[in-house]
């Protein structure tokens, strides 16, 4: 099997996406309360940034119709999706305001909390940086929770799982 080497650019956008897709990620859903009500977005661009202080980051696409809502949100919650929640991940990948079809409750500060997820990180936005065609949103984790289970994974455009010992 031969390697496909290239210089990333507009003419090689598909090849660049394919190369990035070789890296498997977990699946998250980020939620926030906006002037238009609760907002959600499925994202795989989530990472731990710092243990002290407890910081995480995620990066929504600037072309998303949901970008402005998240960029302006003072508080947000990142939910790590369980391997049994692909339907939920698909729901928020397609649209962000359909909270009438999912189980959720507001946190103490009103941020939407999704039920049944593997882990969650309730955050206060501390920075928004330019990241090319994405924004980099950094959150200070105010509260976190987790439960036993397996996370939903995403690799090469497909959902899957992880089995390990």
Task: Describe this protein's structure.
- With 165 residues, this protein is mainly beta.
- It has a single domain (26-154), classed as Roll (Pnp Oxidase, Chain A), CATH 2.30.110.
- The protein has three helices and twelve strands.
- The protein has a seven-stranded antiparallel sheet. The protein has a three-stranded antiparallel sheet with strand order 1-11-12, with no helix packed on it.
- Strand 11 (153-155) and strand 12 (158-160) form a beta hairpin.
- The mean pLDDT is 91.
How many extended strands?
12
CATH topology tier name: Pnp Oxidase, Chain A
**What general outline do the C-alpha atoms trace?**
globular
CATH class placement: Mainly Beta
CATH superfamily caption: Electron Transport, Fmn-binding Protein, Chain A
Structural class: mainly beta
- What topology, given as strand order, has the largest sheet? 3-2-6-9-10-5-4
**SSE ordering:** HEEEEEHEHEEEEEE
> What is the percentage of strand-forming residues?
35-45%
Low-confidence stretches are none
Q: Compute the number of helices.
A: 3
User: What is the domain tally?
Assistant: 1
